Amino acid sequence: MDFMKLLKRIMDSDPNIRHSIICNNEGKILATHHRPGVTNYLSQKETAEALKRAAISWKGRNELVPKIGRGLYAIAAFEKITRMTFPVGEDNLIFVSLGTNQIRTEIHGGGEKQIVEHILNILSSDPTLT
């Protein structure tokens, strides 16, 4: 899988996506795409730690797969950003950060629901989204 192509496709899907990151199931960054002109709120070290914590959470969710099914995504909303996490294959995660409704720069971009649906379609290789 071409991670950079995947991240570019996700970034191009909505102007309110600030950045996207793919990491492995240990939280190690494999690829990243950052929207020009957007400043991160977290340092690289803080981002790495957040990715490690999220990877641990996904490992816990995966233990419940036989009972509740595979996890599709998780959303964490903060005052300044909304972070979405999606599994990519068996061993990787993708993180998508977007501005909250209060600070979005493009009013024509999708809301959380539309962004989640579009990313799920991209990850499932929906041919209608080419």
The oligomeric state is single chain
Kindly report the name of the CATH homologous superfamily.
Dynein light chain 2a, cytoplasmic
Anisotropy-based shape: globular
Which structural class matches the secondary elements? alpha+beta
Strand order of the largest sheet: 2-1-5-4-3
Following the backbone from N to C, one meets helices and strands in this order, namely HEEHHEEEH
Number of strands: 5
Account of the 3D structure:
This protein is α+β, with helices and mostly antiparallel strands. The protein has one domain: 2-Layer Sandwich (Beta-Lactamase). The chain contains four helices and five strands, in the order αββααβββα. It has helices at residues 3-13, 44-62, 65-68, 112-123, and strands at 17-24, 29-34, 74-77, 81-88, 92-99. The chain has a five-stranded antiparallel beta sheet, with helices on both faces.
Summarize the structure.
This protein is of the alpha+beta class.
